[in-house]
Design a protein that fits this description.
The protein is an alpha+beta fold. The chain folds into 2 domains: 63 residues, no CATH class; 40 residues. It is built from 3 helices and 3 strands, in the order βββααα. A 3-stranded antiparallel beta sheet has the order 1-2-3. A hairpin with a 2-residue loop joins strand 1 and strand 2. The radius of gyration is 16 Å and the shape is flat.
């Protein structure tokens, strides 16, 4: 059994130059109609000019997680057919397992 996660799409919302919030729509796993603040991403106060850039990049990457997981699952299915002994398939399976393993 895989641990449930909030389905996509997720979106990154900039709150200020150093803070982003990851939001999602309906979440059937817990019954929320929408979820603002699924995750928060912060920059670095010591280097705000770089921290804001890194925070934005991290927020976009986190928001893309459901789509990236879906794409990786599709790629793994293709690799099982065309390259069943490939390192790429091993890596894809490891990443999928890391993202979906039970934590409870």
């Amino acid at each position: 059994m895989n641990a449930p996660y909030t389905p996509g799409p997720w979106e990154a919302e900039q709150l200020d130059s150093q803070e982003w919030r990851i939001n999602s729509g309906y979440d059937p796993t817990i019954g929320h109609l929408s979820w603002n603040g699924l995750a928060h991403v912060y920059g670095c106060d010591d280097r705000p000019e770089k921290g804001s850039v890194v925070a934005a990049a991290n927020a976009r990457l986190i928001a893309a997680a459901p789509d990236l997981l879906a794409a990786l699952r599709a790629a793994a299915l293709a690799l099982e057919w065309f390259a069943p002994k490939s390192l790429a398939l091993v890596m894809a399976d490891q990443a999928i397992n890391q993202a979906t393993k039970d934590t409870v």
